């Protein structure tokens, strides 16, 4: 996991794991922190919603 997140930066697009009734979705990273990222959902039921998902919720980095 750590190697995958190594190049993560502001503006990166990641794919988040599904959680409860929320399907996997793309998320634009605005800021990276030690244990999470902040930004906005790009699609799905949370499109346009701000969030701070933990690194464990990142399934893949789609663009750095």
Task: Please describe the structure with a list of short key phrases separated by commas or semicolons.
single chain; 64 residues; mainly beta; five-stranded antiparallel sheet; 5 strands; 39% strand; globular
Number of discrete helical segments:
1
> What's the overall average pLDDT, rounded?
93
How much helix, percentage-wise, in residues?
Answer: under 10%
Report strand order across the widest sheet: 4-3-2-1-5
Distance between the termini: 15 Å
Major β-sheet profile: 5 strands, antiparallel
**Which descriptor suits the 3D outline?**
globular
Topology as a string of helices (H) and strands (E): HEEEEE
Q: How many strands in all?
A: 5
Q: Over the alpha carbons, how many angstroms does the gyration radius reach?
A: 10 Å
Structural class category: mainly beta
Share in β-strands: 35-45%
Which ranges are low-confidence, i.e. pLDDT below 50, for 5 or more consecutive residues?
none
């Amino acid at each position: 996991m750590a190697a995958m997140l190594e190049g993560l930066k502001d503006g990166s697009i990641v794919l988040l794991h599904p959680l409860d009734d929320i399907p996997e979705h793309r998320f634009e990273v605005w800021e990276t922190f030690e244990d999470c990222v902040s930004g906005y959902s790009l699609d799905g039921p949370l499109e346009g919603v701000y969030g701070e998902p933990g690194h464990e919720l990142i399934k893949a980095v789609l663009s750095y």
